[in-house]
Sequence to fold (493 residues):
Amino acid sequence: MIRVVLPTHLRKLARVDGEVKLHVKGTVTQRSVLDALEDRYPMLRGTVRDQVTQKRRAFVRFFACGQDLSHEPPDAALPEAIASGTEPFMIVGAIAGG
Amino acid sequence: MSGVRVLVGTRKGAFVLTSDAKRERWDISGPHFAGWEIYHLKGSPADPNRLYASQHSSWFGQIIQRSDDGGRTWHQPGTPPGEPTTTPDGMPKGESNKFAYDTSAETGKALTTHQWYDGTPHPWEFKRVWHLEPSLNDPDTVYAGVEDAALFRSTNGGRSWHELAGLRGHGSGDKWAPGAGGMCLHTILLDPRNPERIFTAISAAGAFRSDDTGETWRPINRGLHSLYIPEATAEVGHCVHRIAMHPSRPGVLFMQKHWDVMRSDDAGESWHEISGNLPTDFGFPIDVHAHEPDTVYVVPIKSDSEHYPPDGKLRVYRSRTGGNEWEALTKGLPQSDCYVNVLRDAMAVDSFDSCGVYFGTTGGQVYASPDGGANWAPIVRDLPAVVSVEVQTLP
Fold:
């Protein structure tokens, strides 16, 4: 089970509290985690990555295990601690004004 | 008519203000979608309980929200809470936020660039929905004006959107350039007498008209004169801020341009200036009285770099002659030290016998006049910066 931490605004959109838990088939990557997230919560389509290009939105970051994974290839395997559910995959809104 | 509902979009959420026909005591609900930019909310003329809202964030992009109960509850079309996340035939929902430019050969041209601020080619990139215009007779049909400028239509209550690509593809799209606020399609006027006629306006491209329900388009900017483009009378490139019409006379259009207040008596074929005795002809909103087709309202702003009223006095100007002769309306409005702006979508009228006029400011005030502009009072004073104001006169 993959644990995902959403920013407040996206938790409200998805109408969830706390962490989201997702089943991910195959290798756990950014893409497979986001695919699973959007399958489970389709109202989040377009909020983390662009609906058309599928690129990460500019003010969204991906943190996990004390690392910034925002610029890792979307199909690269995420750390084992994410895949095992020991650590959460954190989707974070960049701190830029607001 | 039982009452009035004022729909207010702000930089940090939406607010719904309601009152009875006296328009003296107001109930305030909100913020809805707290923390998000709400560029526009508007109700369906065919069903006053059907509202659409454009919710946006620089972080998380564009969300379309819909209410079917007059703004008490909201959902993203197609994904109400508790419903399955796929359609019966297995298709994923969540398409209500998807605005994909149409570049197919069938719809004209694979238009890929417009002009950037410096005149160089720049790719089209969807950023946000500026304006939602529900159909006059079908609650499930709604138009969306977006940045980078394009027109989309939904015929299923906002569940999915399709571009009317003939607007970008008619031939001048590669010459459009952004205004200071972005390259936005901000005005959509539906002709109540000719269901096939649609007017749009784009900053900074100009006004456009379709006579076949949005399939084909042409610029309607003859008579506009703009000194910030290489050729002052060019076919496109004009920074139109807002267009308004009276529903009983849809061939007469009023325009607030970047500079100049303009009028057309032939559905946009030609325009002439009606700025007359205004203290400045820069401004953003323009609107028409509900029952007097020649009574027009504007809010003069000092200049294109000083976005506040001249002399620190917030004055609505009214012409009862269709332009040229303007009177200042000041009673109840601050007449000293006022430095707010009134944005292009932030003025509206109701249709009570005594026409109400409403506008919101970047200082967070929403002012109302229940008597056509003679007397003003704030409904609320301290909202976030107001981006849009729409009014529903309830049956």
User: Anything to note?
Assistant: The beta strands of chain A are 2-5, 20-22, 60-64, 67-68, 89-93. The CA atoms of residues 36 and 84 of chain A lie 16 Å apart. Chain A has one domain: 2-93.
